[in-house]
Design brief:
The chain is an alpha+beta fold. It folds into 2 domains: 127 residues, 2-Layer Sandwich (Ribosomal Protein S5, domain 2); 156 residues, lpxc deacetylase, domain 2 (lpxc deacetylase, domain 1, 2-Layer Sandwich), CATH 3.30.1700.10. The protein contains 6 helices and 19 strands. The strands form 5 sheets. Strands 11, 12, 13, 14, 15, 18 and 19 form a 7-stranded mixed beta sheet that branches. A 5-stranded mixed beta sheet has the order 2-3-9-4-5, covered by helices on one side. The chain has a 3-stranded antiparallel beta sheet with strand order 6-7-8, with no helix packed on it. The protein binds zinc ion.
Length: 297
Amino acid sequence: MFIKNQRTIKNKVSCFGIGLHSGGFVNMSLLPAPIDNGISFRRISTNKSVIGEIKAEYDLVSTTFLGTSLTSRDGKMKIATVEHLMAALWGCGIDNMIVEVDSDELPIMDGSSDHFVFMIESAGIVEQNAGRRFIEVLRKVDISEEGAHASISPNNDFSVQMDIAFNDQIINKQSCSFFANTNSFKIELSKARTFGFLKDVEHLKQRGLIKGGSLDNAIVIGENKVLNNNGLRYQDEFVRHKVLDSIGDLYLCGARIMGHFHGVKSGHTLNNKLLHKLLCDKSAWRMVQYNDHALAS
Ligand SMILES: [Zn+2]
């Protein structure tokens, strides 16, 4: 189904969970937003006073280590780990929404987009009286770095191919293709969890990082086995999560992309660099609004 109009959610919906980095509790609410608002993060204090807002924009991405973080232009406000929610918003076809959060990171939930999709569907989705905007890729843009590669090329819909290769027996080499017009984000990607190796987890925790990380919010790989009790949710869950991550990262361009993304060992850093390279080059894309096809790039 091709959705022509912008969409938001019908009702406010809230959850709480823990922050991956702080290990502390985080309250998060999703609220409807007006036409052309896009996705914005409203940082509130624990007593609910508003501290400020950050738009979900690619050029506000400040950190891409262990997740994608946004920092306000004045440098005073940060929201970490936005990619799994951004992927859920793309997957549910949400154009406009306010995300209210009382911490500087979003709750990690189970390490996938599953809970966020559930929240959005529970809130209800409404169409708004304005055409949806797309970024149409007009020519191929690519970037390579340290053995990783990412490209985006013209396509009449959005699609992703991801290839990953790890030097271990559990992940090894995996590839996944996702086509927006024929595949279901909810069924095929939304439940794929983030992952890590036990040896890295211990090292990161010693450095005071990922204090909230556990088997409840990540797949953890030990000596040639998955340590989570119930194993994997998809046989190729690792590469599916990398597709989910890339969709969340790419949705920070502010509109749905019409183009084909191909990542080879690509992660948050390269995904964001690709967006910068694409959007800096005005000859490589144009903004299209559904209905009038009036172009404003
Ligand atoms: Zn992720």
